[in-house]
Design a protein that fits this description.
The chain has one domain: 23S rRNA-intervening sequence (de novo design (two linked rop proteins)), CATH 1.20.1440. It contains four helices and no strands.
């Protein structure tokens, strides 16, 4: 099985926020593999959302102008979606609170940076 704790050794993206988003995903993806069957769809949605944050940051960092901003907006929305899904999974005891806590903290940091990128002064 794949290990989710290794980050790329060579920075491939110009924003440190990418590494934070990858850490968020790596911290919770192992717990999402063991979501009970009754909440499997929500677990799958959480997996898609938490990985979408990093993927859209990566793609957006290679684009310019409105296209770049669009990927950052999608990443921001995915961070909101991932947080909501994780909070719901914790609320129904589908994943342990401790498993989601680090991801939620990192997703909050990611959203803060994305907000500043999307709303420069």
């Amino acid at each position: 099985m794949a290990q989710f704790n290794a980050l790329p050794t060579v920075p491939r993206h110009r924003f440190d926020v990418y590494s934070v988003a990858v850490q968020a995903a790596c911290s919770v993806l192992p717990s999402l593999r063991s979501v009970p069957a009754a909440y499997r769809e929500l677990g799958d949605q959480a997996t898609r959302a938490v990985t979408s944050v990093s993927l859209n940051l990566a793609e957006g960092s290679g684009r310019l102008g409105r296209d770049c901003q669009n990927h950052f907006r999608i990443s921001y929305g995915s961070a909101l979606e991932a947080s909501a899904a994780l909070e719901l999974l914790v609320a129904v005891s589908a994943i342990p609170e401790a498993a989601a806590a680090e991801a939620l903290r990192l997703l909050d940091s990611t959203r803060a940076v994305l907000w500043r990128l999307l709303h420069p002064r």
